[in-house]
Specification:
This protein is an alpha/beta fold and about 350 residues long. The chain folds into two domains: about 260 residues, Glycosidases (TIM Barrel), CATH 3.20.20.80; about 80 residues, no CATH class. It has 13 helices and ten strands. The strands form two sheets. The protein has an eight-stranded parallel sheet with strand order 5-4-3-2-1-8-7-6, covered by helices on one side. Strands 9-10 form a two-stranded parallel ribbon.
Amino acid sequence: MLTGYIEGYYGLELSWKERDSIISKLSESGCNTYFYCPKEDPFHRMKWKEDYPTTWLESFKKFKINADNSGIDIIFGISPGASLELEDFNYLKRKIKVFKELSVEKFCILFDDIPKQKENFSLHREILELCLKEFPDMDFSCVPSQYCKNMVEKSDNRYLQELDKVDKNVPFFWTGDEVITSDYSEQNIESWKALFCDERNLIIWDNTFANDYCVPKIVMQNFDGFFSNEDKKVAGFLLNASGIELIDLIAIEVFENTLKSNNRSIKEILSDKGFPKELINLSHFFKINISSDFTDDEKKDLEFLLWKWNEKTKTFFYPYFHQLNQIFNEANKPEISGLKKRFRIKE
């Protein structure tokens, strides 16, 4: 099973040094894959028809060598969907050839997050089939325009039915019931696989730790439900996280903890990292869905973290803590309802 990390979020793009750090953590954790598809890389998405600069390719080559030496496979993502026509395949072919020469063997074609009118199911199928025909020795995967159950249920399902005609050896990435899912029970996985032909492999694109939709909130939590790794219910499970190196290293540790059934809590993981007890006491505010119940003790812990904690790592937490403080102390103001909605704080 593919296990690892997706650099596929909005708003932030890792440095090469940070990518190397993620590679090291993946290797230490027993994972095997790094999926490169950052939304903010212009040559990945907005300018996908254009060539990467030579200096960038030199840096990528070093990154790929480091990944190879660490036992981590690179999936290279190209996202042409927003401006794709059939005659554009030559641009896609040229880009794949460039990275094939850099020893990349796994490619993903992404059609996610594009305007509704660009969800051309026959075009997407044809492009994937051209990739398979032109590069029979390469491994291809796909992120469909409809990449969760909710999206399929809101449509007439023709898109997924047509795309599902592609060779069964092409796995599709899937986020679950919703864009953000943390319950990967075997029952849920079976319901997702039922939307496809029997042999279609799914690779989970997990957004549990992603925060590009709720910045500056930090998300750190265990999964709500998970499957047995031995049953091989899916072909892979990759984390799309935050782009904040420290938080993403913790996310990988949570994932390792889950895969190895170590049953360590978030509080234990944070404690081992040397975070102050006041932050650990507030760890339930790092969940996707949180309660608006704030105790006096929690307010005191937050005040300590805002005004008396001066570790370097405070930088990553301070904006969220500041807005939590605003919610705690100004709960009745009309503008606070927007913050609560953004951070999924329920009354």
